[in-house]
Design a protein that fits this description.
9 helices
Amino acid sequence: METTPTRKQQTHDRIVDTAARVLRETGFQGVGVADIMKRAGLTHGGFYAHFPSRDALVAEALERAGEDSRLRLERAIAAGEAKGASRFRALVESYLSERHLKCPESGCPVAALGSEIPRQGEAVREAAQARVASLLTAVESALGSGQPVGTAAVVTAQMVGALQIARALGDNASGRRQLAACRQFLLEQFESERPAGR
């Protein structure tokens, strides 16, 4: 039996959801307590009723962003499989999509924040490492058995790097060409002998 969240829990979730979106949109430096509370429609003074520190909020926001991204990716993979694509093809085409290029604020936090993670506090780094592990697991599952050890790490690095470079080039023809080239490369390397649905 589900219980209705308390008003405090609803407020807490609203703060975390806001921070998760801002985190992916502007990076770690963009997550200021006053700005997040304002964007969430709350006063700055109420922050410490929910979080002991900014890092605690950032770590939780990173977890939320990662879980949202994981669920979105799983839905996209399921939709691709329903159309006859393999799990791997559906993953690659979703992750390296023009939509993901355009919308960092709702996409993968690993690609949005990867280069900034090593400079964060321990709690934030741990949350980020969990997100990386989750993405590696998704790629490993999509590749299926029989791949050499380390293949999932290589594919994950290529996907994340491709998206970061495409975003650096911009939501334009250059950025889209970058994504298309990486999609084609990954599918040629890992899809050619894979039957649909696997």
